[in-house]
Amino acid sequence: xxxxxxxxxxxxxxxxxxxxxxxxxKSVIETFLEVSKxxxxxxxxxxxxxxxxxxGFKDKNFLELAKYMRHISGKDTLPKKEFFLKKYQSGxxxxxxxxxxxxxxxxxxxxNSLNDITIKELxxxxxxxxxxxxxxxxxxxxxxxDLENNEKTTELITNEISRWASAYFDEGQAxxxxxxxxxxxxxxxxxxxxxxxxxxxxxxxxxxIVELLPESPKKALESLTDKLLEKISLEQDDLSNxxxxxxxxxxxxxxxxxxxxxxxxxxxxxxxxxxxxGLIDIVVxxxxxxxxxxxxxxxxxxxxxxxxxxDDRDLDLIYIWLNAVECAYRRRVEKTIKSSVNSKDLxxxxxxxxxxxxxVRSEVLRRHLENSSDKIQxxxxxxxxxxxxxxxxxxxxxxxxNCPILLNSAYEISEVETKDExxxxxxxxxxxxxxxxxxxxxxxxxxxxxxxxxxxxSYIGKILKSGIFQKKPNLDxxxxxxxxxxxxxxxxxxxxxxxEEKVNLAFNALKNMGLTKNFxxxxxxxxxxxxxxxxxxxxxxxxxxxxxxxxQSNAIFLATILNDLEVQAKLKSKGIEIPRDTLFxxxxxxxVKDELHIDRFEGLNLKQGQELSLYEKKFREASKxxxxxxxxxxxxxxxxxxxxxxxxxxxxxxxxxxxxxEWGLARxxxxxxxxxxxxxxxELDGRAFLHxxxxxxxKDLSILELIMTAPMIVTNWINMQYYxxxxxxxxxxxxxxxxxxxxxxIGCIQGNESDLLGGLTEQSVLYKGDxxxxxxxxxxxxxxxxxxxxxxxxxxxxxxELISNNWLKIISINxxxxxxxxxxxxxWIEPKEDLWN
Length: 837
Description:
It is a single chain. The chain is an alpha/beta fold and 837 residues long. Among the domains are: 21-39 and 136-296, no CATH class; 349-418 and 489-661, no CATH class. Strand 17 (809-813) and strand 18 (820-824) form a beta hairpin. It is found in: Cell membrane.
């Protein structure tokens, strides 16, 4: 009888499995495609675009994501307790903030069972040193193998994938490159990996599995999934989580290949994607290693046994603390802005108007410029200044995108030589060839001898100059061998752009930045860029609105077309009249040295030259004051005398051993959208993105719509990149910069092997092991009525998901009475009045 029962159970299990297997086979690719949407693309280090690594989860609530990532990774994506404890002990966070945070949390989750959370529990929790460690809830086969055998096979597989991907995607760094023969990644890997033995001593099945894989990655994914389901029964959600766990273990390279799909969808050009394959190639490769271990494990479930909903309660408590710190910061910003209510307009017509990028580093310089003179007015606008261009350097084959990555560059602007057309091109080419020769000698098999003997002694002087005597090194890669005098003979060619297009670009730029009347005598467009030596992550410090490039080119372009008298005449017919004495000029803000570089302008008359000279003195004064303010937070700078500070900043920009040339956008926390009179002269500590917006000039809400669907998305990406790099620098950041090595000319790995690194290095967000960047969600203050903001939220799904799911906070500033309202759980509230009712 017992034997019959046993046979019947086995029969039932097999029938149930067969039914499940058929259902899974029909949805394997569909399931994979759904999972692939969770991935955010990663750009290479030449164009280090800031990304929100969780952007693919924007349809989930922020707290839901935190719990999911703990289960999929075993790591937390919420800040550590010590951060909150310090905030409370310093008095920045009060019990009032905790009460508000708790009520916001309860309003958000709609769960009455958690009403029992008390302030006492929150305080005891944050003071406790106990840390709950949650085992993986969703695991790969390699995770199970490691658990049973106390090994690090998952890490080994990650490194294997990284080696193959590094070789395949190499862009000229490797001297001995393996040919890809124009085949996609999966096909190329399959043809070569049969000679590899990654699992010696663990399993002998790997090569057999690879040999039997179909040529099509889709068929291969289905085949490997069949093998998995033969041993382990999975529901649909479990299979999704399994695929994402595979992606998570190779997150860097998976995100990098996802970039090509993003760009193909954005531009409509898919040739590169077809050539290399896509995310499915990485996942199939990763899964082949996983399935090779399937017979080596005894467990028949991929779900962890040590996780439960109860284990997530500490995440709920940490989340309330996060809300409390954000509430405290929001209160300070509101109080600061309210203090400016009675500020008057200081000028009828300013002498100088200066449009800066909304970047938080501009906030400090703008304030000091305006403090230096009542006749200086600054404007905040996206740093590409509304001109979506790509820039082709003199003699270069390709071009760099100088506009947000969410846009397509509409125009290619080329550099041309104003004198001899070939001499500077030849100089650049000779420089590039010399560099290639040095690299080839340095990286050759006998480099230990030949490099030192051939070139080594020539570097002694450079090292002494740059490291000891604080002189600028002779080698400046970014200048490509050209001197400053050479660069004066290069200009941009704008002639290919039709007059009608120039007029439209100029009109839209002026309209969207609110500069349609009351033009000053001098109107500057100031891009920004960084300056550092031997820094693979240099582009991460450049202009985010210019896709990781200096915004000076955009500034030059806009100033040039606005000085065109024909453009001005046509703008007048469109309602924008530019005074005859107005001159448009360009320049850029060096964010390491906090210096303003004003581009030469040949058309100044004597009076204009004299007036400008007076203001240039004020610009230098403002730069000095900006340097002193920034020095408070720069290591080794806070106690320097004024006479020493400029030299130290110069050294930071040019020292090849400097690991922290500047803090970049660290500590960003808010985005203020409104009239400058709200924030002029207010100290916002370099933590606020500032975008000018006048609701009275935006009757159809087109400008507000543009701000909320473009700059707000970009600032959210920046904010979340800094957030993620801070709370988990090993996975979502780029680890320790000192241990990073450039691979393939694409990105960095940690040490000799690791996954491709994304995000920011520890040196960009941490100091002495503690948080320098405060991991808070972006709080967006908009000077507009709630009904106007609602209209944009309801119109755009992406905006609605980011706000409703608490990826950022929206605060309305009523233009009439300056009342602040917070958007929470799809409604507007005033915390003091509404949360206690």
